[in-house]
Amino acid sequence: MTTNAVRVTRAEYCVIACAEAWRDNGEVLASPMGLIPSVGARLARRTFSPDLLLTDGEAMLVGPDGEPEGWLPYRHHLTMVTGGRRHVMMGASQIDRFGNQNISCIGAWDRPARQLLGVRGAPVNTLNNPVSYWVPKHSTRVFVPKVDMICGVGYDSAAAAGPSATRFHRIPRVVSDLGVFDFATPDHAMRLVSLHPGVTLEEVRGATGFELAGCEEAAYTREPTTEELRLIREVLDPDGLREREVAR
């Protein structure tokens, strides 16, 4: 049953798109960063990905409501990270055509115009387990031809580094407030998969600093079911905080 008679907000389409990133993942550890990815991961666990593992970020495995389900000491966490058994959804201050991500600085590394978070765990994440990205405000400042500094490793950079870098490297999808993207092209260039309802192709092209593949074949992000919408609004985010994360 779909929600044709109910107005679905842009933030709720973003939640659905993030949840879909973990579809068919099996028993892997979901590591969402940000409110909408977190609601998406919990929604996936409650519906179509029941084997998904969630953590409190410290030492416990938790259910979709945060109730303890098991113990996850750090050494076991690291084993999952280095063996491709975790799927992270990170943010990106910049991301380019081949999925290189920057969260460290804007401008030259030795004299940046703006200092950001720093590289942190992005290289290890991207080389050891699948990493998707969430961008709440799609613009040419974020979707750039070439990132100022590589933190998360993209497909071209991983290929240049060789087999040790490509063994577990995979970027399943990028979700923004405008649409959903992947790298399922012959050269692993970013492809438009779907537009969120209400978004035009011209809007996405104008907010992206490079040419996107797949624009003519792109669909629309799917509608949430009635039950998914109920879970989002009444159980997973009853205070509506998701609407604050998507500016449009």
Automatic annotation (TrEMBL):
One Pfam family, short name please?
CoA_trans
State the top-level EC class: transferase
Spell out the SUPFAM superfamilies in the cross-references.
NagB/RpiA/CoA transferase-like (SSF100950)
Name the Gene Ontology molecular function terms of this record. CoA-transferase activity
Q: Which UniProt keywords apply?
A: Transferase
Among SMART domains, the record links this protein to:
CoA_trans
**InterPro entries in the cross-refs:** CoA_trans_fam_I, NagB/RpiA_transferase-like
- Similarity-based family: Belongs to the 3-oxoacid CoA-transferase subunit B family.
Q: What is this protein called?
A: CoA-transferase subunit beta
| Organism per entry | Streptomyces hundungensis
